[in-house]
TrEMBL record:
Source domain of life: Eukaryota
Organism: Poecilia latipinna
Name of the protein described by the UniProt record: Clustered mitochondria homolog
Matches recorded under Pfam families: CLU (PF13236), CLU_N (PF15044), eIF3_p135 (PF12807), TPR_12 (PF13424)
Residue ranges, annotated region (Disordered): 752-778
Length: 1146
């Protein structure tokens, strides 16, 4: 999309901070308190903040007043006259409506369960920074241990132990109130069972809550003794139940002690693949309001009284139409877009689950189930299948499943909100609805084609709007022939259609072919002679299962940048040669013509669209079947085909070999997600994994990249298994889901030679049918007769091999997955983790090693979550500030970098909230700069926040969480808190072992740090175990002649010296000295320090020998070792900080 090139001015950046001020809040019946707010905060947002504040959290139905006037909930605080620094805002209790009562009950329920780990993103950081300290590591994280336990991934926290305030909070059966009671103000009745086993019947009226005289079988709405009316249910229960008062106060106290980032709700919840400990508990409020909407038997939406159906499209388009001229306007617009997108994604996931489970009536019930489309909560849902042969020319169902989406943020041009949800093997696309589209009262398509180029339309309004976006997307304006053989101008792919909604807005749909096609995966007879040698050497072109394979935008930009540099070099060389040979008497006009010829030649050589300046764009319709071009455009079409082939060859010859960056550890992938991120940054699609593995096999340094090879092979296996799982689940009866999933995992990973599916233990046989006359509906009771139950390990591995060959063009030569795992030293737990994350499976503990029974039973499959892919809006201004800060820091202007990062953090926090990846990144960078400047206490606070955010929004076992734990351990060590640093490093090592295993560069770093911290704590035996393992891994991944390897030898020498094994210390320091000397030379500081240390070790050896000969005079020995310990602790801190020095660079 069109990105803003300008960054916020100094004045605008200053306004961000001046926009914040402090007001005084006066709650009812309590003392006032100060609260910091922003001028851009709305009154409704302040209302929500007060509902979460510990002093006002028991209120939900109130208005805010300033000077006796009620504040408009939609107004911005900065626009309200009288609101300034120190202004007094009063919280005034309002009368209840039925909707307000339901909101209040849900709010009370959320407060009572606010510390319950179920249903929220988890964090365990405080367990390791504030908990009990033990220097001895668990046995399962020691070097050489092969056992990978799942239970420690989610340890039990003391502050998560149940603190029950009520036994039951339920909607009473006496609802709704009779007519005469409505006239008295009764809105609802609720039933409560207190911890004292006392049954309470509460009346919710317009003025609040009071106890009535009703029982389970007798309706008496009159007030009961004590006659107390409270505006808040919490206040009433505190007076009626001593246990509630005590436990609720303790609950509030626990929340105060928690880090604020642990209590904030994440915008998108992270579902852990390993189930946290805990049992299902009674929750009547949630069961009453679980969806907010129900569907009747006719499939019509029935909205409960407390829920208002949202018009997602109108909200989204209005937000995009907001002004964006100033920084404050853009911040307000970005914040609206982010919040609406977050709500939309949550609604899309909920609707996709309901549709897949059959709880939403389709609009076309007469069609086969896989072709059903539905409308739920003003969202349009469709499955990933080819309806009406729309994708027939490019691959049918496979293309429909892979249909992507793009975001175009051109002013005046509108796109639909889109999310893709994978659930139980079904892909569902959720989109906002174009106004009037479902009523079929819109005009025909006015731009593009929806029949694969048979009929093509154009419109001047869309040409004008798309002209802006086509420049940034590198799309070449071109002409195609319509059904009457007339040329039609387009500025997008022909499949992109434009319509005018009933709201008058221009919408573009079907953006799946926005980027240029990838000719490496488009096989055609006429293209065989055009294939470059670089593509042929990799075995391309290859046939793909659909024709929607396109180049990534990162590849397009990298290719254009490469051609731009080539263009500049060619033009400068030729111009330099012309100036050198130009004769003074030569006419000026001739010289000018020569220069034009030089630019024309350079443009022709690099494939520029213009013949006078550099401008490379791509025609996305060049290879699309069914598209015809005017005869005068055919030469340009051929030129575009050559350009596309050159881009495809550039990917293979430049971008895939660029993965050598992993050799110097600029990128250290740890799992499939981080590997995918690394190759995507270079513009390489995941379907090139076969080519990546081929390149890795041919590298001379392939041993140093063996971890990348293992991750790539694991990714091919798990992605192929995911594709098979998708079709496998289509034949499974709902009653057998858990048995089918466990059987699939057993066939994939179990050591049992012939896994047999579990019987569905919960199913009861029907007495109405004899055994001989069971129908199809009874087959869930007998899973071995179902298609899914006939899958075997050999069948699954055979299908994985076929899928890997067809999709990723990689050949597995092993006869079984066990053989492949052993061949490449893969980890079953890592494969299980990847498979679970990709499919949404949630599991509990397992047992791989048992060969007598399957590893998984149906009880081990706890849940299946939807896996959602969606756009992630953020602040473009803040992203630009981060880039500026990184450049400033790299040039040595650290204070300037701090200021810029502070501004970026303010923007990101305002737009996306605290719990966001970009906020975590800013905090991480700020911490590193503070640490570099020697401000370690500030660095520690910032890094702790970054680690908390990573845990909650990316997952407790995400590689970024491991990196944040490692940096936090470094800052704790620098601050002298060695035991806390040790616990964090233990946790980081456990997570790394779970993710990828012990054979990885990250383990080498962690083991070096662990060895040094343990040495500082005088745990030298443990220290040696980790340092010796680090030495082996450093030699493998950094090279036996590298400085890292020299450092490992030096650290081992330090530990052996403190143990008194001077000969071993000498041997290791000699190795270190040789490496320092060969790599850095005699004059380097490291070589000189090593030489001095070597001399000191030699002298100490001589002293020790004299001490042994004079055994009667041992009094000097303790003095010697006391001096050693003091010096070595300072030396260890120095070495630890330098070991991780490469991580500190921005």
């Amino acid at each position: 999309s069109n990105k803003r090139k300008t960054l916020p001015s100094d004045g605008e950046a200053t306004d961000l901070h001046e926009d914040e001020f402090t007001v005084r809040i006066q709650p009812p019946g309590a003392e006032s308190f100060d609260l910091q707010v922003s001028g851009q905060m709305s009154v409704s947002e302040l209302h929500q903040v007060l509902m979460d504040h510990e002093l006002t959290c028991h209120h939900s139905c109130f208005s805010l007043q300033l000077g006796g006037a009620v504040l408009d909930s939609a107004a911005k605080l900065g626009s309200i006259q009288g609101i300034q620094e120190g202004a007094l805002i009063r919280v005034v209790e309002d009368s209840y409506l039925v909707r307000d009562v339901r909101v209040h009950l849900r709010h009370v329920r959320n407060r009572l369960r606010s510390l319950d780990p179920a249903g929220r993103s988890l964090s365990y950081l405080s367990l390791f920074t504030r908990g009990s300290v033990s220097r001895s590591p668990p046995f399962y994280i020691l070097p050489g241990c092969k056992e990978r336990r799942l239970t420690p991934l989610q340890p039990i926290r003391d502050d998560w132990k149940p603190l029950q305030c009520l036994r039951v909070l339920n909607i009473s059966s006496w609802n709704p109130p009779p007519g005469n009671r409505k006239l008295h103000g009764d809105l609802m009745y609720i039933s409560i069972l207190t911890m004292e086993e006392r049954e309470l019947s509460i009346t919710c009226c317009t003025r609040g809550f009071y106890l009535n005289q009703s029982t389970a079988f007798n309706f008496n709405p009159k007030p009961a003794a004590p006659k107390i009316l409270c505006h808040s249910l919490v206040d009433l229960l505190s007076q009626l139940s001593p246990s509630f008062r005590k436990n609720f106060a303790a609950l509030q106290k626990r929340r105060v002690y928690q880090h604020p980032y642990e209590c904030i709700r994440a915008p998108v919840q992270v579902c852990a693949w390993a189930a946290p400990p805990g049992d299902h508990s009674l929750d009547c409020v949630t069961s009453e309001e679980t969806d907010g909407q129900v569907t009747n038997r006719l499939g019509l939406m029935v909205t409960l009284t407390f829920v208002q159906i949202r018009d997602w499209n109108e909200e989204l388009q209005r937000s995009r139409e907001l002004p964006r001229a100033s920084l404050l306007e853009r911040r307000h617009r970005d914040r609206r877009l982010f919040r609406i997108n977050s709500d939309f994604v949550a609604a899309a996931a909920q609707g996709a689950v309901s549709m897949t489970e059959g709880n939403v009536m389709p609009l076309n019930p007469g069609e086969p189930p896989h072709l059903h489309v539905s409308v739920w909560n003003n969202l349009f849902f469709s499955q990933g299948f080819d309806m009406s042969d729309h994708y027939a020319p490019v691959g049918g169902d496979a293309a429909a499943h892979a249909a992507a989406y793009a975001s175009v943020d051109t002013e005046g041009l509108h796109t639909l909100g889109t999310a893709v949800v994978d659930y139980r093997g079904v892909r569902v696309t959720a989109q906002t609805v174009v106004p009037g589209l479902l009523e079929k009262n819109l005009e025909q398509i006015v731009y593009g084609s929806n029949d694969n180029g048979k009929t093509v339309f154009t419109h001047p309004r869309f040409l004008e709007l798309l002209g802006e976006s086509s420049k940034s997307l590198r799309i070449q304006p071109h002409q195609v022939l319509d059904h009457s053989d007339s040329p039609v101008e387009l500025r997008s792919a022909v499949s992109t259609v434009g319509i005018f909604g009933s709201d008058g807005r221009p919408y573009i749909l079907d953006l799946l072919r926005t980027f240029p096609p990838d000719l490496n995966f488009l096989v055609s007879a006429e293209a065989q002679q055009e294939v470059p040698a670089a593509c042929r050497s990799f075995g391309f072109p290859q046939r793909h299962r659909h024709g929607l394979a396109s180049l990534r935008p990162q590849l397009v930009e990298a290719f254009v940048q490469h051609r731009s540099e080539l263009f500049a070099k060619m033009a400068s060389d030729d111009l330099g040669h012309q100036f050198a040979t130009e004769k003074p008497e030569e006419p000026q006009r001739a010289a000018e013509q020569n220069r034009r010829n030089i630019f024309w030649k350079a443009c022709e050589n690099v494939g520029s669209m213009s013949d006078s300046h550099f401008d490379i764009r791509f025609n996305p319709d060049v290879c699309f079947p069914g598209v015809r071009f005017p005869s005068e455009c055919l030469p340009d079409v051929q030129k575009q085909r050559r350009l596309l082939w050159e881009a495809a060859a550039f990917l293979l010859s430049n971008q895939i070999p660029a993965l050598r960056d992993c050799l110097d550890h600029k990128a250290v992938p740890m799992d499939g997600a981080t590997l995918t991120s690394v190759i995507h940054q270079r513009g390489v699609n995941v379907r090139y994994l076969g080519a990546v593995l081929k390149e890795l096999d041919e590298m001379e340094e392939r041993e140093k990249l063996s971890h990348v090879q293992r991750i790539s092979i694991s990714e091919v296996i798990t992605r192929s298994a995911k594709h098979i799982f998708r079709t496998y689940m289509k034949d499974v009866e709902p009653a057998a889901f858990s048995a089918a999933v466990s059987h699939f995992l057993n066939c994939l990973l179990s050591s049992s030679s012939a896994p047999v599916p579990d019987s569905c233990s919960d199913e009861l046989p029907s007495r109405r049918r004899s055994r001989r006359r069971r129908t199809q509906s009874d087959r869930a009771n007998f899973p071995t007769s179902s298609l899914w139950a006939k899958l075997t390990s050999d069948d699954l591995w055979s299908r994985i091999k076929t899928e890997a060959e067809d999709y990723y063009h990689y050949t597995f030569k092993s006869e079984s997955i066990e053989e492949e795992i052993e061949k490449h030293n893969l980890q079953k737990i890592s494969l299980l983790r990847e498979m679970s994350i990709k499919t949404g499976i949630q599991l509990r503990e397992y047992m791989f090693e048992c060969r007598h029974k399957p590893a998984f039973s149906e009880d081990d499959v706890v849940n299946i979550f939807p896996v959602v892919k969606h756009l992630k809006p953020t602040s473009t201004d803040a992203a630009g500030l981060v880039q500026q800060a990184q450049l400033a820091a790299q040039r040595g202007f650290l204070r300037a970098g701090l200021d810029l990062l502070g501004q970026a953090l303010t923007l990101f926090s305002s737009v996306c909230g605290i719990l966001h990846e970009d906020v975590s990144k800013c905090l991480r960078l700020l911490g590193r700069l503070r640490y570099t400047l020697g401000e370690n206490d500030d660095a520690l606070i910032l890094q702790e926040k970054a680690a908390l955010i990573s845990e909650r929004i990316q997952g407790t076992d995400h590689p970024q969480t491991v990196q944040d734990y490692t940096h936090l351990a470094l800052y704790f060590f620098a601050g002298g808190r060695l035991s806390t640093s040790l616990q964090l490093l233990y946790r980081a090592r456990y997570l790394t072992l779970l993710i990828i295993g012990e054979d990885h560069p990250q383990i080498a770093l962690l083991d070096t740090m662990l060895g040094l911290v343990l040495h500082a704590l005088m745990e030298n035996e443990l220290s040696l175990k980790f340092l010796q393992n680090a030495l082996t891994l450093t030699s493998k991944y950094h090279g036996a002649k590298s400085l890292k390897h020299a450092h490992s030898h030096h650290v081992l020498a330090i530990v052996y010296e403190i143990k008194g094994e001077l000969q071993l210390a000498l041997n290791h320091e000699k190795e270190a000295h040789i490496l320092y000397k060969n790599q850095l030379g005699e004059s380097s500081d490291s070589t000189k320090e090593s030489s001095e240390y070597l001399q000191r070790l030699t002298d100490q050896g001589a002293i020790l020998q004299r001490a042994v000969r004079h055994i009667a005079q041992l009094g000097a020995k303790p003095v010697l070792f006391f001096w050693q310990r003091k010096v070595q602790i300072e030396d260890v801190e120095y070495q630890l900080l330098n070991q991780n020095g490469n991580k500190q660079q921005l």
